Amino acid sequence: MANRSLAWVLLCLYGATGMTALAYEVLWTRMLSLMFGVSIFGVVFTVAAFMAGLGAGSFLGTTRGMQYSPARSWRMVAWLEAGIAAYALALPVCMPWLDGGLVSLGTGLSLPAWQGLQGGAVLLLLFPPALAMGMAFPLALRAATGARLTLASMYGVNALGGAIGAVLPLLLLPLFGWRSSLWVVAGFGMLLAVCALYVARHLPGLSADSDKYHAGAQRPPSADLLAYAGIGAAALMLEVLWTREYGMLLLRTEYILAVLLLVYLAGIGLGSLLAARMRAAVWLNLLPALAALAAVAGQYALSSISQWAGSSEFSSLLTAMLEQGGMVALCTLPVTLLLGAWLPLLARHFHQQQSEAGGWWYGANSIGAAAGALLAGFVMLPLLGTALSLLLAATMLLLCGMRWVRDRRLWLSLPLLLIVGWPVHSLPPVSRLLPALPASTDLSVYEDAVSLTHVVEQGNGQRVLLSDLQRMDASTDPTAVTVQKNQARLPLLLHPAPRTVLFLGLGTGITASGSLPFTGLERTAVELSQGAINAAGSWFAPVNGGINGQVHIIHDDARRFLRTDDHHYDVIVGDLFHPDMVGRANLLSLQQFQRAKERLNDGGIFVQWLALNQFDVASIKVVMHTFASVFKHASLFVDGYRIALVGHKGEPAHVHALLHRYGQMSDTAKVQTTGGEGIWTWLGRYWGEIPDFSTPLQDEWAPVIEYSLPKVRFGDGVDMESMWRWLLSWRSRDDIAAQSLGVAASDMQTFRRARVATALNVRLWQAELDGDERRVVEMARLAYRANPKDRWPAFALADRMYDSLAHLPVGGLSRREALMRILTLRPDHESALRAMMQLEQQQGHVAAAALWQQRLHTLSPLAKNIRER
């Protein structure tokens, strides 16, 4: 094989090994995000294990590789690639076993200790393949001497291959799922190993040049290696922090990680190739200041990028990735280009054999990078927050790079960096980041390794809990409060004698507060976010009844808690989760539903709530089918745009038992436990037994919906009209529903009227989607006649009556009379109460205005101009 052809083949093969390496990294990150349930943990531990292995392997390979010929070195690369592929093939089989073993070992540990145990196991698990990858680098550089290739070209091509590998899983995962995608990449790795073994036959063996190469080999000075390790630490700090930052503002974490790795490695590769045309003496002076300032400068664009992403409409997930990835590249590519040039410039600066020097420099940089990833994820983020940590990482990059700066005047770049960076040392307020909350005020910001939690006050005084700026978990708006409380009301009404209840997720505490009117309850809530726990105890206490003092709160991951807890409960409530976020769909998995069932007492009920606007028909079928495969008696209830999957351990309680308990309640308790709607309204929301949809099951280790929902989100969106049509297509007939619930013949008329109102509500919402106001009013009136206690049609009518106040005919109803009609229909109509208060104030009726103000404050204690500020 001609020398030029041999060089091209080596470059292509080594670039392909970079592609497989980064594909492994992204896929393993995805795997660990499933395991941890928090995507940033998967990122940090995968990157740390990868970089630690690469560094240790590079040191080991450098000392060994100097003794090998180019041919033998390349054969070693081939066998290492084959070993990595074999390891990757075995990993999906081992992970469930490892996960189960860790749960047994971690029983009784606190959440931080548990996460540390998981992280330590992951580091040990991923270290061997990363060690092999690290050893391959200096061996490949040694083999490159046989084809007269430079360090810059090998390093650059490998990084560019890695850039392709970073986005390859995004194409494979939706097609094959996680396990099969990993096997595809591993199979390609095996093919590369075979090709590499063939090419090794054409490389030279030992020669006099080899002895000369070995004799001239020297390790760079320790101080210089330490400085370059610091640069590696700073670089990976930036990568972790960018992943957290852009994962909040743009696409979800694994997509942002892939985009960042693409940009990062493309910059490294191009920077390395460009270094051949750069003068080391000049650029080693300029790199520290330029890279640090570029890292900080991108922070000034955060508000604009977030506003643009929040207000833009993307036609598909691919379009969103391309456009948002382009924005990420604009902010980060200048930094990565400069980072890529550093290694070849240092090797040239020290006048060493480039292949020998590369292993030492690469190893030091990688070891530093591993430390930097762990430091950023578990020390800097909780203590300093994302923005200030990024400024610190940029400062560290500058200081370490100053090791090779000869012009003392360039030390002025340090105060310049601090001057430029200080205005962006904290994230902008939510009002500047989210177009949906333009007039909001940040009341509280809490950041740790799990998430960034905001409590935000809107212009009307209502508060919202935000997690990672992407999940608007709950609001204190009266309608939102009622709907959240309903998530506790339904499960507790369906159990004949509940004594213990477990809430999977606390959030604002409003859902759990729906259980307060039920006497004799022992309440437990498990919540992963410490920020949410703090917010529920303070900022949301006015609307959650001070629930933190009346519930046993456990700071833990819901999946681990169900696996390690030895208590049993009468009722378990699964709160709403955002299923398209990494790890969240595991809370809707086969294994999670099985865990919940195991923690139920005999006759217990598990209710999992779902928001219809977060699913398409295909994905919600998967969740329902998975739920029904666990619970023999699995049914569906509909409350607005939220549905409840209800599973029983054992035979469901008959209606007469529920009515007996309800009949023993006081009138006040009946109103409070049902939200004023009465128990028959809730029984009338019974939709039917969940049919057999024959879809794939949502398995923790073979998830389905996480790959389809992002396409829905960034494509045509959720088609709610199709969703309602599909739900109506299999709704149970009244007689079958009555038989399933055990409704007596004497109660059949009441039950049927409640069910008619529920069906008409759906027709009402369909008409709203079509923009047919005439039909909306028609359906609302019919539903109200069928069941006046049902809040949905009553509010639909009240809202339209209120909107018509501006067009009252002359000589008709007065404004006062019209408002009183609205309040007769819905005494809790906030806008009508506010209008009555203002009317009394305008007419000088101070006492009457104060009474209306008190009613409004009771309904909406946080409404602006009502509460004491």
TrEMBL record:
The keyword DNA-binding does not apply. SUPFAM superfamilies: MFS general substrate transporter (SSF103473), S-adenosyl-L-methionine-dependent methyltransferases (SSF53335). Keywords: Membrane, Polyamine biosynthesis, Transmembrane, Transmembrane helix. The chain crosses the membrane at residues 33-56, 77-98, 118-141, 153-176, 182-204, 225-243, 255-275, 282-305, 325-347, 359-381, 387-405, 410-428. It comes from the Bacteria. PANTHER family: THERMOSPERMINE SYNTHASE ACAULIS5 (PTHR43317:SF1). NCBIfam families: MFS_SpdSyn. This is Spermine synthase. It comes from Mariprofundus ferrooxydans PV-1.
